[in-house]
Every structure is written in structure tokens, then in C-alpha cells.
Write a structure and sequence with these properties.
alpha+beta, 8-stranded mixed β-sheet, 33 strands, globular, SEC24 homolog A, COPII coat complex component, membrane, zinc, Gelsolin-like_dom
Length: 803
């Protein structure tokens, strides 16, 4: 098990550090010295807009014109400018209540949302023979500690006074001595350390990649094998790693096929194990090979694999035994297993039967079978986690595959799940395109191996529930055999001891991992927030998007452990409870209507969006695997991407010329307003773009201006829009026409695409398009046969609040 042992005694640094001591300058005020000056910074003085009273039943246009920024904590300027980027680390409440009873009174959820391994354009990296940490609670030194004098610092989590090591007196950035408070560790809330040997329980593992492919008749029919092999051939040199990188392949149908790729062979050698009851490795030493030494054999295999099984009539799928084989092969080193599966496993251990009744897909009653049918996949995932192996699952299927069960292999091993329903190379070009783009990102993105993450918080606060893909190894230690830059996590917190004498509290997430180049590294994020004692200050600091993200994760758990109905009720009650508390405890004068503070004005809309989302909707036909995948995404997506799922963005495109253009990275990008998700915003004379994160819907109105169609789509009129644009379900990219309108439209869509790591497919749809129904389902403010309109939902909430 990877631990974080205490640093060994540090040798005094060599000459350049031991300069004569200079006169110590008292650094700027730190959190521990904050006095009543912070209390005087009452949030109401700072944030009157956050507490502005909004009558939700009267004010219709609540959406801001563009992206919603995270609220800024009410801290002194010098502290706030050092605070952690909210895209990496944010809290549902940017003002922490002094007591649990005050939190209970506000009836708002308290929790953290993290994106700990996010791709960052700037990341300070420190190499040091000793990493300075609190001797008592092991917190890493950070911008929110306080220096009592030149030789002592006080921990901001447990308040222990620690000595400043001699080496820390020297600042490698300014090359000066005697100003420890100016070191990069104390100037950056996010920092990465290259760890010394005491942070390793074994030599850092190499990057090891094992690909496990379903080659049954069903799999071959979809054509996915060609795409995987082609993508691997194109990206083989871009796999993260070094000269030690290893790679291997297993294929399976009713039998397990291994591939001997040992250096010196003239071609890859297939080894077949037909006894799936008792899996063994035929040649353990030549199945995972050094990529740089055996690259030609690997390329030969990838070129020949698609043809090897082209004529197969094997329909069985021994996924469980294939996974057992992968576990045996990877256990000695750890690494990443990528599974590609196209049907229900039918043979050997882990075989499953269909649990979905298609007649119940539209049921308004409770949805069954959201929990796993067997614990085989969870147990195997925990075994994998213990050996530093993560399993990523790519599910490509038109049939029910029981993702609720299969997904456990990734969930508990810190893997990822990718889902391509109804995948077929020819018949669903949009899915194929997304699969190709996702694979390229997946194969080339940064990866961390044998990782653990610990979240610490100031004494008095405690963490009690984690959300995401991992195994909780001890109360606060997450085991992450792999960590990737697209993984998000959430945690719930409570206040165990009153924070009465504290002005601020801090949270620190430390991620210890092995880079693909074999370096042991520690990425540390520290967040500082003020403590308040008035309920209005708590509300003023509420972060509506973070609250929505945390409630979504909690609701997914509730759906599985209790029922979907319970989860839906809990989300609705969260809105009712918070607005009731606001009405009774914050508003001085009672007024008619449904009242909310401006900072929470979008909470009912976001919760309604969740209730209508695939994960939680009822009464609308929803395949069980689609529902479970939506739940996986809500639990594992970082908040920025999760919000696309909750509330897609709608823009009008045929009026971009009037929409305040901005200069972004030397490109002029129009910035159209975000519109309400209601049919009343659509007009037949217009062209609209809906951004749901993974998809763009380019909606063309029947009476759209022919000039726009000519300049952007290259057609004369609506009637001339090629049928394949509407019927083929996707239209890769807008044509690159030499017109200002085409340039503007493509620049705007390109700018949206650049803001996410995954690929968004573009669908051009008209009023006759088969995709129109999906487009309309995202109009969450409108009424459907089975769900309330936004206005009706507000009336329901008001009725409960007024009781």
C-alpha cells in the first residue's frame, strides 16, 4: 500500500543557502493573525447583489447573458489573490457557518467539488530534498499558514507551531535568503512537488497499458475494432511514458486469446486459452512487452487484428474470465486496462442475463435494477485497486449491457466509463466520430499511476462522504490506481466542533502520484474561506452551481441505495428547504411570491433540469443503460462539464453580427446571449445552437433568412438543405465558406469546443429531423406529458414553502 511516510531528518543544505541571517521582515498578515478586521468585512457590505430579493414567479429572465462565474469568497484582498482557482477546488458555501446548528438552520448542503488533476497552463513545480509539512497533522505548507517569526510557522489546519527548516530559508525563485514567506509553496495555492524517495514504498512503476478487446461476431459487426487499431497505430508514439513503457493485448469471445510479442519473433503469436473456468497466463513474460523494443510487432498486430476475426461466428462473450486474465497479467506492475465490450457477458464467471423490461422504460413508477446484479465486478475492481490497476470500460452496444453491473469494474478501480449506444461504423457516423476523437484524447492525455488523494480540513470540520470513482482506503484516503485530467470528485462535510474563535478555515487536497515518466509527484491544492456567524452571510456566499453538482452526486447515490423516487423528492426538498429557510430566517419583511436571494435564483431551474435529465427523469422512455451512464457522468464529471448536462446553453446564431464581439487570444469571437430553454424562444425565422456538452444541435428554422443559409451552409433555401444533413443525424463541420457570416459562426462554435477536453458532435436539424425530439427534451422550461414546466415547478415549490 502506498503511504505517505514522515520525512526523514533533513541534512542542512550546502553553501548557497547558509548566508548570514538578514533582518526578518514581518510578512503580510496571515489567516491566524486575522482579527476582527475580517468580521467587520460583513458579507452584506460586500455582496448586496447576492442577497438582492428576487421574486421567481415574476422575474422570467433570470439567466445571465454569459457564463456564471464562481462567487468570490469574502476575504482580505491579499489572501483572496492567493486562493485556489475555483475550477480546481470550490465549496458549496464560500462562507462557512460557525456551527452545525447554524448550517442546519440555513438548510444548504456543505461540500467540496474537486478537479484535482486538471490540465493547467501554469503549474509551479518544486524540487526539494525536504517537503515542509506540519509535524502534527501533516498539512503541506501553503499560502494560508502564518509565520510567527523567521524560524517558526503556524499550521492553518491544526494550529501547531512548527520550525522552519534551514533549507526553506532560501528562496530559489528570487535567490535570496531569509524570507521563507516568499517561497513558491507559500505564494501558490496549487503547487506540485517532485517527491523524494521517502514518498515511495517501491520504485515508481512504468506506464503499462493493456488493451482487452471483445472480438465476438457482434463486436466485429459494429466495426469498432478497425477504429481502435487505427487510432492506436496513429497514437502509439504519443502514449504517455518513457523508455520503460509496456503494452499488451488480449482478445476474447468464448475463449481468451493472448498475444506473444516478444522481441525476436518474426510476427505476433496468438495463444488461445479455451478453459475459461480456470484462467492461466500461457507465457507470462512475453505478453506485456517494452513498447520501444517491440514496436514493430505491436504495429503488425494492430494492422492484422481487424482481419483476424472478420469471419467469426462466435457469439459468446467471456468478459469475466478476460478480466481475470488481465488482472493476473497486470498485478506485478500495476497500470491501466482498457476494456472494449459490445454485449452482455454470457459465458463463465461474471455472466449476466438481461434485467431490462423495454415496456417499463416510460414508467412513471420506480426504476428497478440500478444496483449491480452480482458483486463479481466490484470485488475484482477492489483486487485491481490493491495492485494499482485501474480498468476503463468502453461500452459500444445497441443492446442492453447492464452498465449498472459492468460499471463497477471502473468505479471501484478509479477507472472511467465511455458509452456509445447503438454504435456502428457505417450506420452511426456521429458515434464513430465521437469514438475516434475520444480515443485520441484518451490515449494521449496525461495520466498518473499508483495515486492516493487525501483531503484535510481545519480542526472542527469533518468529511463524511466521497463521490467519484475510487476506493476509500481509510477514512480520508482515496485509492486511485490511475488519475486522469478529466476526473472530478465531490465530498460532503459537516461541522463537528464549533468554529467560534476562527476567522477563516482551510481545505487541502494532496494528490500523490507517479507520472508517466516515472517521477513520484505530489500536487497540492489549498482553499481558504471565511467563517461567518449570521445566516444572511451564509446565503450571500452560496455557490449555486457547486450546490447543484453536490446535490446531483448525492441524488445518484440515493437512487441506488433507496429509490429513484426518493432521489427526486430529495432534490425537490433541497430547493424547498433552502428557500423556506431564506424566507423565515433572512427576509426581514415578508412579501408575497416565491422569493430567493439573487445568488440562488437559478437553483429551482437547475434542479428542474436534473429532474428532467436522463439520470432521474420518469415517464419519458429511457433505456436503463442510458440512465445509468448519465448517473456515472453526474458522479464523475468536473463541475464545469457537469453543468452542460444539467442546463444546456441555447444561442441564436443568425444575429451574431450584433452580438458584442470580444477579442479572445487574438481572435474576434461573437458573444451571443444565453437564452431560456423554452420553445417560446425559438422562432421560425431564426437559427439556433444548443450546446449540451457532448453535442451541438444546429437548429434551422423553416423561414430562416436565405442569405444566412447561403453564407453559412452554402445552400439557397431551407428546402435545399441536403436531406443527409437532417437525416444522417450529423454533419461533421459547417462548410468553410469565404463569407464573414461563415467565419463568425465557425469561430463561435470553435471557441465553445476549445473549452472542453472531449469532442462535441455537431448535428444540423430542421423541423422534420429525427433528432428534433431530443432537442425538444432539452427545453427544460416547457411542460411535457410527464413533467412540470418551470412555472408549474415554481408554483409547487411556493406551495410547500408557504405551508
Amino acid at each position: 500500500m502506498l503511504g505517505v511516510p514522515k520525512p526523514s531528518p533533513v541534512l542542512l543544505p550546502p553553501q548557497p543557502y547558509s548566508l548570514p541571517s538578514q533582518q526578518y521582515q514581518q510578512p503580510p498578515i496571515g489567516p491566524a493573525q486575522l482579527s476582527s478586521s475580517l468580521a467587520a468585512l460583513s458579507l452584506q457590505a460586500q455582496a448586496p447583489e447576492a442577497l438582492r430579493v428576487v421574486n421567481l414567479l415574476q422575474e422570467r429572465n433570470l439567466l445571465p447573458p454569459g457564463p456564471i462565474p464562481a462567487p468570490t469568497p469574502c476575504l482580505p484582498q491579499d489572501l483572496q489573490k492567493l486562493n485556489c482557482n475555483p475550477e480546481v477546488f470550490r465549496c458549496t458555501l464560500t462562507s462557512i457557518p460557525q456551527t452545525q446548528s447554524l448550517l442546519n438552520k440555513a438548510r444548504l448542503p456543505l461540500g467540496l467539488l474537486l478537479h484535482p488533476f486538471k490540465d493547467l497552463s501554469q503549474l509551479p513545480v518544486v524540487t526539494s530534498s525536504s517537503i515542509v509539512r506540519c509535524r502534527s497533522c501533516r498539512t503541506y505548507i501553503n499560502p494560508f499558514v502564518s509565520f510567527l517569526d523567521q524560524r517558526r510557522w503556524k499550521c492553518n489546519l491544526c494550529y501547531r507551531v512548527n520550525d522552519v527548516p534551514e533549507e526553506f530559508m532560501y528562496n530559489p525563485v528570487s535567490r535570496s535568503y531569509g524570507e521563507p514567506h516568499k517561497r513558491p509553496e507559500v505564494q501558490n495555492a496549487t503547487i506540485e512537488f517532485i517527491a523524494p524517495s521517502e514518498y515511495m514504498l517501491r520504485p515508481p512503476q512504468p506506464a503499462v497499458y493493456l488493451f482487452v478487446l471483445d472480438v465476438s461476431h457482434n463486436a466485429v459487426e459494429t466495426g469498432y475494432i478497425d477504429v481502435v487499431c487505427q487510432s492506436l497505430l496513429e497514437n502509439l508514439n504519443s502514449l504517455p511514458g518513457d523508455s520503460r513503457t509496456k503494452i499488451g493485448f488480449i482478445t476474447f469471445d468464448s475463449m481468451i486469446h493472448f498475444y506473444n510479442l516478444q522481441e525476436g519473433l518474426s510476427q505476433p503469436q496468438m495463444l488461445i486459452v479455451s478453459d475459461t473456468e480456470d484462467i492461466f497466463l500461457p507465457t507470462p513474460d512475453s505478453l506485456l512487452v517494452n513498447l520501444s523494443e517491440c514496436k514493430e510487432l505491436v504495429q503488425d498486430l494492430l494492422k492484422s487484428l481487424p482481419q483476424m476475426f472478420a469471419k467469426t461466428m462466435e457469439t459468446q462473450s467471456a468478459l469475466g474470465p478476460a478480466l481475470q486474465a488481465a488482472f493476473k497479467l497486470m498485478s506485478p506492475t500495476g497500470g491501466r486496462v482498457s476494456i472494449f465490450q459490445t454485449q452482455l457477458p454470457t459465458l463463465g464467471i461474471g455472466a449476466l442475463g438481461s434485467r431490462e423490461d423495454p415496456n417499463q422504460r416510460s414508467s412513471a413508477k420506480d426504476v428497478q435494477h440500478l444496483s449491480p446484479a452480482t458483486d463479481f465486478y466490484k470485488k475484482l475492481a477492489l483486487d485491481c485497486s490493491g495492485q494499482q490497476v485501474a480498468v476503463d470500460l468502453f461500452l459500444l452496444s445497441a443492446q442492453y449491457c447492464d452498465l449498472a453491473t459492468l460499471g463497477c469494474i471502473s468505479r471501484y478501480s478509479a477507472g472511467s466509463v465511455f458509452f456509445y449506444p447503438s454504435y456502428h461504423n457505417q450506420h452511426t457516423p456521429a458515434q464513430t466520430e465521437r469514438f475516434q476523437k475520444d480515443l485520441k484524447r484518451y490515449l494521449t492525455r496525461k495520466i498518473g499511476f499508483e495515486a492516493v488523494m487525501r483531503i484535510r480540513c481545519t480542526k472542527g470540520l469533518s468529511i463524511h462522504t466521497f463521490h467519484g470513482n475510487f476506493f476509500v482506503r481509510s477514512t480520508d484516503l482515496l485509492s486511485l490506481p490511475n488519475i486522469n485530467p478529466d476526473a472530478g470528485f465531490a465530498v460532503q462535510m459537516s461541522i463537528e466542533e464549533n468554529l467560534l474563535d476562527m476567522q477563516v478555515v482551510s481545505f487541502q487536497a494532496a494528490l500523490l502520484y507517479t507520472s508517466s515518466k516515472g517521477e513520484r509527484r505530489i500536487r497540492v491544492h489549498t482553499l481558504c474561506l471565511p467563517v461567518v456567524n449570521s445566516i444572511s452571510d451564509i446565503f450571500a456566499g452560496a455557490d449555486v452551481q457547486a450546490i447543484t453538482g453536490l446535490l446531483a452526486s448525492m441524488a445518484v447515490d440515493r437512487s441506488v441505495t433507496a429509490s429513484l423516487t426518493d432521489a427526486r423528492d430529495a432534490m425537490t426538498n433541497a430547493v424547498i428547504d433552502s428557500l423556506t429557510s431564506y424566507r423565515t430566517s433572512v427576509l426581514a419583511i415578508q412579501q408575497p411570491g416565491l422569493l430567493a436571494p439573487a445568488c440562488l435564483r437559478l437553483l429551482p431551474l437547475y434542479i428542474l433540469g436534473l429532474l428532467k435529465q436522463k439520470a432521474f427523469r420518469t415517464g419519458t422512455s429511457t433505456r436503463l443503460d442510458d440512465r445509468v451512464f448519465a448517473m456515472c457522468q453526474l458522479k464523475c464529471q468536473p463541475l464545469a462539464y457537469l453543468m452542460y448536462l444539467v442546463h444546456p446553453s441555447l444561442y441564436r446564431l443568425d444575429t451574431l453580427i450584433n452580438e458584442g464581439p470580444q477579442n479572445i487570444d487574438d481572435h474576434i469571437i461573437s458573444q451571443p446571449r444565453v437564452l431560456q430553454l423554452s420553445v417560446e424562444k425559438l422562432i421560425r425565422e431564426g437559427v439556433f445552437l444548443m450546446d449540451t456538452g457532448s453535442e451541438f444541435y444546429f437548429w434551422v428554422g423553416r423561414n430562416c433568412n436565405p442569405v444566412f443559409l447561403r453564407q453559412v451552409l452554402g445552400v439557397q433555401s431551407y428546402a435545399d438543405v441536403p436531406l443527409n444533413m437532417f437525416r444522417m443525424l450529423h454533419f461533421n463541420h459547417l462548410p468553410e465558406l469565404d463569407t464573414a457570416e461563415s467565419g463568425r459562426t465557425r469561430a463561435f462554435i470553435g471557441w465553445l469546443r476549445e473549452q472542453r477536453p472531449f469532442y462535441s458532435v455537431l448535428h444540423v436539424i430542421g423541423e422534420e429531423s429525427p433528432l428534433k425530439s431530443i432537442f425538444m427534451q432539452n427545453m427544460i422550461e416547457d411542460r411535457t406529458e410527464s413533467a412540470l414546466s418551470y412555472y408549474e415547478f415554481l408554483l409547487h415549490v411556493q406551495q410547500q414553502v408557504s405551508k
